[in-house]
Specification:
Blueprint: H1 4-14, E1 27-30, H2 32-35, H3 41-53, H4 56-59, E2 63-65, H5 93-102, E3 106-112, H6 128-137, E4 142-146, H7 157-174, E5 179-182, H8 196-199, E6 210-212, H9 220-230, E7 242-244, H10 261-273, E8 278-280, H11 289-295, H12 298-304, E9 313-320, E10 323-332, E11 336-343, E12 350-354, H13 356-360, E13 370-375, E14 380-388, E15 393-397, E16 402-410
Parallel strand pairs: 1-2, 1-8, 2-3, 3-4, 4-5, 5-6, 6-7
Antiparallel strand pairs: 9-10, 10-11, 11-16, 12-15, 13-14, 13-16
Helix pairs in contact: 6-7, 9-10, 10-11, 10-12
The structure holds alpha-D-galactopyranose (GLA).
Alpha-D-galactopyranose is lined by residues 32, 67-68, 117-119, 146, 183, 185-186, 216.
Length: 420
């Protein structure tokens, strides 16, 4: 006899996205951390040109996403459609979309499920079908829908799932494959844990291709609070649907929001472990060599995009009065693993150890398994080139918020200890 809960699962799954996109975590650029509300059409054209010229597109960054503030203050009075702000987007959003596509990129846009967006532009409440169709008509490939200025409050659940669900259905009805990114970050407190969007049967993969699990990542603490929340949700992510700890912050340039260089690289490493969307928020034309090296590291990108599609998590944390350290792990195809050793001590260097308890947290790994260890930033075997499951593997890290990242591949020399 079918369990009642399973019938409920089937019913919920029937409403899920069937759009054929988001098979791997999306990679691209988003305007918000770079430009905030000062975004213009010229900026977008420059970013599109540079995504191609500086090798970002070739590395896999395909989406160019326009966040909030592209809209005119009011809808078109005749058609009721959203329209671009003509003072900053004089050639129209449709033309901009064509320009982006002509570069070989995909085009993303932003709206909000409430009456107005977080920056008080017109929202999609009550206009879901028309707005989804407008976006499809403009050739949009990715929609981020935010959570501000809603009828019953940003966290009022039945309405939250209903309204995001209406936009999902409206997008599905257009027949155009459009990645749907649910952003519950708008309208919540900066430390808000939004993991219910992943765990509720009405949320997660039934609702979108990705869903924010924390308030905005706009400086170190909020980013890593979000990462820590995401670490508890690995089973909820997979092909077509990803937990979203929010966008990437670069370290240089004139970006509205940014991190220190080692912090930004650490975010990139951890986002790869978390199988998170990789959306860069910084101008490519003025980007530092350091940031370019970070975002173009193809070995770390390969971890993010690994076809096994299993999300990683924290396998060891150490707290002391001076701060804390983490070891992160993600299972990869080919019985390999990615490991990140992270130091969060601002003033002290740290020896971060994966000890027997840490190894025991790597699911399915037999004690004594041997691995060749590759340093994904040195692009060479690690200083300690072999790791044995169950035996201490330690990494010395300098002071500051920084990390090292490794790929562990089963050692052909003694493959008597493979995954079970
Ligand atoms: C919210 C979202 C951000 C961004 C802004 C735009 O804060 O969480 O990612 O989209 O709104 O106003």
């Amino acid at each position: 006899m079918l369990d009642v809960r399973c019938i409920a699962c089937l019913l919920v799954a029937a409403h899920g996205l069937d759009n054929g996109v988001g098979l791997l975590p999306p990679m691209g650029y988003n305007t918000w951390n770079d430009l905030g509300c000062s975004v213009t059409e010229d900026h977008i054209r420059q970013r599109a040109d540079m995504m191609v010229e500086r090798g970002l597109l070739k590395a896999g960054y395909t989406y160019l996403n326009l966040d909030d503030c592209w809209q005119a203050p009011a809808r078109d009075s005749l058609t009721g459609r959203l329209q671009g702000d003509l003072t900053r987007f004089p050639s129209s959003i449709r033309n901009l979309s064509d320009y982006i596509h002509a570069k070989g990129l995909k085009f993303g846009i932003y709206t909000d499920r409430g009456y107005s967006t977080c920056a008080n532009r017109p929202g999609s409440y009550g206009h879901e079908v028309l707005d989804a169709q407008t976006f499809a008509d403009w050739g949009v490939d990715y929609v981020k829908e935010d959570n501000c200025n809603t009828r019953s409050g940003s966290l009022a659940k039945p309405e939250l799932f209903e309204r995001f669900g209406m936009f999902r259905d409206a997008l599905n009805s257009t027949g155009r494959p459009i990645y749907f990114s649910i952003c519950c970050g708008g309208g919540v407190l900066p430390w808000a844990n939004l993991s219910f969007v992943a765990t509720d049967p009405r949320g997660g993969k039934t609702l979108g291709n990705s869903w924010r699990i924390h308030a905005d990542c706009d400086e170190w603490y909020t980013c890593f609070q979000g990462a820590r929340v995401d670490s508890n949700l690995p089973e909820l992510a997979g092909q077509g649907g990803f937990n979203d700890p929010d966008m990437l912050l670069a370290s240089g340039g004139l970006s509205v929001r940014r991190l220190l260089p080692e912090e930004s690289r650490t975010q990139f490493n951890v986002w790869a472990i978390l199988m998170a969307p990789l959306l860069i928020g910084s101008a490519f034309e003025s980007m530092s060599e350091w940031d370019l090296e970070t975002f173009l590291n193809e070995e770390v990108i390969a971890v993010n995009q690994d076809p096994l599609l299993k999300q990683g998590f924290v396998v060891k944390e150490n707290w002391s009065i001076f701060g804390y350290t983490w070891v992160w792990a993600r299972p990869l195809s080919g019985s390999s693993w990615a490991l990140v050793f992270q130091n969060n001590h601002i003033f002290f260097p740290s020896r971060v150890v994966c000890d027997s308890q840490c190894w025991a947290n790597l699911p399915g790994l037999a004690r004594g398994s041997r691995f060749d260890v590759r340093d994904l930033w040195k692009h060479a075997p690690a200083d300690v080139p072999v790791a044995v499951a169950g035996e201490d593997y330690s990494v010395q890290l300098p002071r500051g918020r920084c990390s090292a990242m490794f790929k562990l591949s089963p050692s052909p020399a003694k493959d008597d200890a493979l995954l079970v």
